[in-house]
Structures are given as C-alpha cells and as structure tokens.
Design goal:
The chain starts with a strand and ends with a strand. The strands form four sheets. It has a four-stranded parallel β-sheet, with helices on both faces. Strands 8-11-9-10 form a four-stranded antiparallel β-sheet, sandwiched between helices. Strands 3-4-5 form a three-stranded antiparallel β-sheet. It has six helices and 13 strands. By secondary structure, the chain is of the alpha/beta class.
Length: 204
C-alpha cells in the first residue's frame, strides 16, 4: 500500500520542515513541504492545463491531503489551493478553511468573539488616518496598531504618541491596520483551534 501523500503548505524556517518530515516518517506518511512561491497557478484552456502545479505535479490530483499553514501575504493563493483540494474530495487541515465564507482576518475574529459575548480589547479597523488620530485621542496612549493579517507578532506596533502613530501608519496601505486599546499583561494566553476543537495553551 502506498503511503498517504501530504502537501504541507507552510512558511520556511529552520525547524518546522525538519520536524514535519520526522513526524511524517514516524507515521509512515509521504510529506512534501512547499511554499506558495514554489507553486505555479495555471489557467491555460488551450493546452488543457488548469490548476495549481508543483513542478510537474497537479497538487489537487497528486496529493491525498493538504495541511495549509501559510497565508499572509498570499491569502488568496492559499485559499485557492484549499478550495481545489476540497473540491477534489481531499482532506484539508484545518477543515474550517473549507467552510463557505471563511475569513482570515484578526478583525473578523474580534467581531465574532465580541458578538458571542467574549470580552475583547476595544478594536477598530479604519482606513482614514484622521479618524484613527481622533480615536487615539479618546483611548489615550499607548495604543496598539496591528496588521489585519499576520502572526508571531509581525505587524504589531505599540504606539507611544501621535507622531509615532503617523510614522507607523505611513508604512502601510489604507485598511491594512486596525487600532486597539493597549492592555498591559504579564502573561500571553493562547487557544489553538484545530477542527473546531480548542486546544488551550499558556505561554508565559
């Protein structure tokens, strides 16, 4: 029996590929690790080549499962691959990515949590700098400017004053940042969700 072939679409670092390959080997899985930049998106009806290719492989046909672990700044491309696997009846991890209307946005998450009655920091996503400056005047400094997308603390800025706010704001396109009240905390609490199951983790 051939081993299950898994495409791990993830970011590149020093440790993750080695750990994923080792885990796959222990489980008898054939794991291929790729970045979005390694893929070719082809829509050539003349030659009949339509799909997403990794070298000569049509990924949705040649792999049994997809573990999608990369998004920003290639959100639409990653979700395209997710959609192709789902349409082909293949396993996608995490399954929430295949749901209709899935949104990969921190602002979306804050909205859903707040609507469910979960206390969240006061947060606004606005494209107008003047509106953000008025908001900062109401909330007071320090203020957090945070990218709508990103992880591992990327695109998160602790803004100390109005001049610093304008400096950070100028580095981004309108609508790429949200403004959030600063909440001092000594611990970083995290909940990881896989397949709609909450796996609590505390990071001190």
């Amino acid at each position: 029996v051939s081993p299950m072939k898994i495409l791990w679409l993830g970011w590149e670092d020093q440790h993750t590929p080695a750990r994923v390959r080792a885990a796959g080997a222990r489980l008898g899985l054939d794991v291929t690790i790729a970045q979005v930049a390694d893929l070719q998106f082809v829509a050539d009806s003349g030659s009949g080549r339509v799909g997403v290719m990794l070298g000569d492989l049509d990924v949705a046909r040649c792999f049994d499962a997809l573990a999608a672990r990369t998004f920003y700044p290639h959100i639409s491309e990653a979700l395209t691959v997710v959609g192709l696997f789902h349409q082909a009846g293949k396993l996608v991890i995490d399954e929430s990515l295949t749901d209709e209307g899935v949104t990969l946005s921190k602002m979306h998450d804050y909205l859903m949590l707040a609507r469910a009655g979960v206390a969240v920091p006061r947060t606004w996503q606005m494209a107008d700098l003047a509106a953000v400056e008025r908001l900062a005047g109401e909330l007071g400094y320090p203020l957090v400017l945070k990218g709508i997308h990103g992880s591992y603390g990327a695109h998160v800025h602790l803004v100390r004053d109005a001049a610093h706010l304008r400096e950070v704001w100028a580095r981004y396109q309108p609508g790429q940042l949200m403004a959030q009240e600063y909440l001092p905390a000594e611990s970083d609490f995290r909940v990881i969700c896989v397949g709609y199951r909450a796996l609590p983790a505390l990071v001190e």
